[in-house]
Write a structure and sequence with these properties.
Elements lengths: L5 E6 L4 H13 L2 E4 L11 H11 L3 E4 L7 H6 L1 H21 L4 E5 L28 H21 L2 E7 L1 E3 L12 H15 L3 E5 L5 E2 L1 E3 H13 L2 H8 L5 E4 L5 E2 H12 L4 E5 L8 E2 L4 H5 L8 H15 L6
Parallel strand pairs: 1-2, 1-3, 3-4, 4-5, 5-10, 6-9, 7-12, 8-13
Antiparallel strand pairs: 8-11
């Protein structure tokens, strides 16, 4: 950022990623953070978003707002996932342009890559194959967001960047028993097993698929790092024809290893039962993070440490946590 204080709008500040970005920006004390709840500015309302950004005259936008969920939610509500995500990104990006906002960071998802993409997944794997059917509507919306930013850059000379995080977890995650992702779902399941004295915990699938997990505070730090890169450095190191950057740890583990770690963190001493009748999904999903490493950033929070702090947050908030 420049020596003058910047006015920064964080869209989606109440969510897991948005709240982490707000925490990260507060550490710098170099900007004035602008936030709005959905009741104050509905990001699905084009006119409301345009009027807000024009009136606020912000310098930068972090677009962390999105409709998110696990496999069940994506399967059950495909129309809501594609519609709401498309509308949010279209409204915010276009209104930012109309308001003269030069810098914007769009947060996507690793699900943009083909189901059978070569591992680890590089940025240039985008649009080279078919997507995972269970979350295709969400993935298509996120791909559209990347191309939206790329198009405003090409046509109007904007500096709208995109980062693609791997699987995220941490404070303010969604711990709903049906609509959450694997880490919050397992944390809740193991916690309830400990509380109830259950002898076993059943986990969907064989436990063999491999996944990569990134603490949301690392994601926020990477987002600010990418946003603050000088444009010349950013372009020189990321190849301008590729309009997004992967964010991850570059390390994965099996679902079995993840479950065993969560069992340790939560103090569960019973049996782990893997239900192989349930789908495993893609055998492996790992991000190639060499581009981000070349740009000077690496993840710093080890998985077990991050899980322990997330469980502590869950314990402190389990009476009011979502779901």
């Amino acid at each position: 950022m420049s020596n003058n204080r910047s006015k920064v709008f964080v869209a989606g500040h109440k969510g897991m990623v948005g709240s982490a970005i707000v925490r990260r920006l507060k550490r710098d004390r170099g900007c004035d953070i602008v936030t709005r709840s959905r009741n104050e500015v509905d990001l699905l309302d084009q006119n409301a978003v345009r009027e807000f950004l024009i009136s606020e005259q912000v310098d930068e936008v972090y677009l962390a707002a999105a409709k998110v969920g696990g496999i069940h939610a994506n399967n059950a509500f495909p129309a809501e996932f594609i519609y709401e995500n498309l509308m949010i990104e279209c409204n915010v990006v276009h209104a930012a342009h109309q308001a003269g906002v030069q810098k914007l960071l769009f947060l996507g998802s690793s699900c943009i890559y083909p189901k059978f993409a070569e591992q680890p997944m590089k940025e240039d794997a985008l649009l080279t194959g078919t997507l995972e059917p269970t979350n295709e509507p969400y993935a298509i919306a996120k791909i559209a967001g990347i191309k939206l930013c790329e198009s405003y850059n090409r046509q109007y000379g904007r500096d709208y960047r995109s980062v693609m995080p791997t699987n995220l977890y941490g404070p303010n995650d969604n711990f709903h028993p049906e609509n959450s992702h694997v880490i919050p779902a397992l944390i809740r399941r193991f916690h309830e097993a400990v509380q109830g004295g259950d002898p076993e915990v059943v986990i969907w699938g064989s436990g063999k698929p491999m996944r990569e997990f990134l603490h949301v505070d690392d994601m926020a730090d990477a987002s600010v790092h990418v946003m603050n890169l000088e444009l010349g450095s950013y372009q020189a190191n990321t190849q301008p024809m590729l309009s997004h950057i992967n964010v991850g740890t570059g390390v994965d583990c099996t679902i079995r290893e993840l479950a065993e770690t969560i069992a340790r963190v939560t103090g569960f001493e019973g049996r782990l039962v893997f239900d192989s009748s349930k789908p495993d999904g893609t055998p492996r999903k790992l991000m190639d993070v060499n581009r981000l490493v070349d740009l000077g950033w690496r993840a710093s929070i080890p998985l077990e440490d991050g899980l322990a702090s997330t469980y502590k947050w869950f314990m402190n908030n389990c009476d009011v946590v979502r779901g």
